[in-house]
Amino acid sequence: MSLFDLDGKVAVVTGSSRGIGRAIAERMAEQGAKVVISSRKLAPCEEVVAAIGAKLGKGRAIAIPANISSKEQLQHLAEETTRVFGKIDVLVCNAASNPAYGPMHKMSDDQFNKVLGNNIVANHWLINFTAPQMIERKDGAIIIVSSVGGLKGSPVIGAYCISKAADFQLARNLAVEFGPHNVRINCIAPGLIKTDFARALWENPDTLKASTARTPLGRIGEPDEIAGAAVFLASKAGSYMTGQIVVIDGGATIT
After folding, report:
1. How far is CA 151 from CA 6, 46, 248, in A?
2. Which of the residues 4, 160, 168, 178 is marked catalytic?
3. Where are the beta strands (DSSP E) in the chain?
């Protein structure tokens, strides 16, 4: 059996209709997991389900839309997944928000609260809806897709960076709480990845040039280059790792 085998596992991936979340869901499905595709709108989720089904066979993925700002919808996501697939073995908290681009003093209170609510509180909610069954089985893996922004400041996405730093501590604290029950929780901290979510950062030639100039690999990343780490953390290969941050940024944070 491969160390990365996920056969028989059920994985919920938020924000998985595109970008990093979709790449993670597709790669986990390739390793044998049944995956739940979730984002705000049903149609894009169903497109991903259809693509996975066409490649790997029907029944390997289902769509359960959920807005991460709604505690009730996140509860439904956890409960409906358990009803359909019987359990949740892997939770990937990937969905996030960043409604403002610019200095923090120009953010409205609503924008600031949205960042903190969607990027921290929503993870807390969904983990609480999911972890109890993992604790009962004494087996589970939780992955928060954070950001290298949590390791440094920014003149344009400051609140986002604050929220991602908080995700690191959320993972560390829950690793202490869940560890005795063999439930692991880790963060992945991507650098600049070519996704729609980060378009404002890589579409601007000046911003892109400045970013890659500080990156030893000399380029930005692709969503699939994050997915492998998620498979590692969800599988037996990562079974002795918890409370950690996996930085995947082409080396940008070392320069």
Report:
1. 31, 35, 12
2. 160
3. 10-14, 34-38, 61-63, 90-93, 140-145, 183-190, 245-248
Q: What share of the chain is helix, strand, coil (3-state, %, to 5)?
A: 50, 15, 35
Residues 6+ apart with CB under 8 A from 132: none
In a domain, 4, yes or no: no
- 240 assigned to active site: no
CATH code at position 14 = 3.40.50.720
- Per the structure, the count of domains in the chain is 1
Contact (CB, 8 A) for 122 and 97: no
For residue 20, the Cα-to-chain-centroid distance in whole angstroms is 8
Domain extent for 14? 10-254
pLDDT digits (tens, 9 = 90+) for 49-68: 999 999 999 999 999 999 99
Query: C-alpha dihedral over 91, 101, 158, 255, to 10 degrees?
Result: 90
What's the pTM?
0.95
